[in-house]
Amino acid sequence: MKYDFLIVGAGYAGAVAARELADAGHKVLVVDKRNHIGGNAFDTLDENGVLIHPYGPHIFHTNSRKIFEYLSRFTEWRFYEHRVLAKEKDAYYPIPINRITINKVFNLNLSEEEVEGFLDTKRVKKTEIKTSEDVVLNSVGHELCEMFFRGYTRKQWDLDLSELAAGVAARIPTRTNDDDRYFSDTFQMMPSHGYTAMFERILDSKNIEVRLSFDYLLNRKEINFDKLIFTGPIDAYYENCFGKLPYRSLRFEHEHFAVDQFQSVGTVNYPNEQDFTRITEFKHITGQVVSGTSIVKEYSQSSGDPYYPVPNPINESLYQKYLAKAELEKNVYFVGRLAQYRYYNMDQVVGSSLALVNKILDK
Known about the structure:
- This protein is α/β, with parallel strands linked by helices.
- It folds into three domains: 2-37 and 203-246 and 310-362, NAD(P)-binding Rossmann-like Domain (Rossmann fold, 3-Layer(aba) Sandwich), CATH 3.40.50.720; 43-83 and 250-308, no CATH class; 95-170, no CATH class.
- Helix content is 32%, strand content 22%.
- It has helices at 12-23, 65-71, 99-106, 112-122, 132-140, 142-157, 166-170, 195-202, 234-237, 282-286, 313-326, 346-362, and strands spanning 2-8, 28-32, 44-45, 51-52, 60-62, 77-79, 84-88, 91-95, 187-191, 208-212, 224-230, 247-257, 267-269, 278-281, 293-301, 308-309, 332-334.
- The strands form four sheets. A seven-stranded mixed beta sheet has the order 8-7-13-14-15-12-16.
- A hairpin with a 2-residue loop joins β7 and β8.
- α1 packs parallel to α12 (346-362) and α5 packs antiparallel against α6 (142-157).
- It is globular.
- The two termini are 24 Å apart.
């Protein structure tokens, strides 16, 4: 059988592209080397009946009404605002840094109006912002940088703040009020029945066929198709012809406890203690009511499945070589965090996929 489109990857990028093309009348085959759909957003019940995210916590948030309404076609939502604490020497501090964090760290009682002036006395003013270190020092100064950012960055990226692109640290705001939400987006929700159920509905079309446990890169000639959308690592597609792009991987340690609650918020960061970066307790995120609770500890590592592109000028320069090669392709398209070597959030992947399909259909 010949397909109009072969889509490699059943995560957000692949599933959204498949649905849009299928709705436009195209016959689509989606393949994934894993044995499930949903990519890293896949969720499932563990052996204790707790809904977990095997690949670490995924919290949906966006400022785009268009993307929120698009996904609302495939799921009902549960309102959820994520909260994160950082543990440091037996004390817990709100992250992102806010007035409560600053007062607790410096043993002060500043009002909202006074916080900005206090931070001005701590900031290391930078005339040019090139690295994540520049971002943090320019925002909060040395003490808060060492307490919350430098150690966490070293564990997460195996790089110093000074070696990481500015955009990574720029994702985390500094607040002068008591807002302790991790995200400030307009829409902060979780799929009521989980991500996997949402992906099942996205891929539910007579024009979509899904084939799991199929590694396209090892079986390139097995499928007959007109056009290809690839959502995996772009360097792997081209057999690392210019060299491997660096990615950070993760190792997950899942645990279950016979208690109702393990920690007071969804995620606790460990910037300077422990080998892991953070612990997430899933019942906070999902709202599931069930006996016992399940958590995951995350360990960042250099080898394993690629999760995060490593943003810095050297890696970007290497990516541009692959991008130049990709732009010469006539019927091959690349979309998603790994294919575009971008540190995308979930909503950004959806937006990028919708934009690609619009471009293809316009042609």
